[in-house]
Specification:
3 strands, 44% helix, three-stranded antiparallel beta sheet, 111 residues, alpha+beta
Length: 111
């Protein structure tokens, strides 16, 4: 679950995000209350309208900056370069308090 902190709404909208391996691809499910869904749809518009590698990159950034509790497969994590591990860890820590939506780094790829 994550909150949409950067959204102008009467109350902070929240969404849940579930990511599941699906063969050689990934299945992603966003959920929100009916009152919050409009805000989630607007907030995630860029993800919903992107495709392939870029969509997975945007999902990676969302997970790293918004989701406090996630798991990376140990086998996949071990396959990352040391530089990518540092970039992912730093981005996660740096965005705990404030999102960094304009930060771009191709090493922030979780898929």
């Amino acid at each position: 679950m994550f909150s949409l902190d950067d959204v102008d709404a009467p109350e902070t909208p929240r969404a849940t995000l579930s990511v599941f391996p699906a063969g050689s691809d990934v299945a992603v499910v966003f959920s929100a209350t009916p009152n919050d869904w409009h805000f989630v749809r607007v907030y995630c518009h860029r993800i919903f309208t992107s495709e392939s590698y870029f969509q997975k990159y945007l999902l990676s950034k969302l997970i790293l900056q918004s989701c406090d509790n996630f798991v990376i497969s140990p086998q996949y994590f071990d396959s990352l370069t040391p530089d990518a591990k540092v970039a992912i860890g730093s981005y996660f820590v740096d965005t705990i308090i404030k999102n960094a939506v304009n930060h771009e780094d191709c090493r922030l790829f979780l898929f």
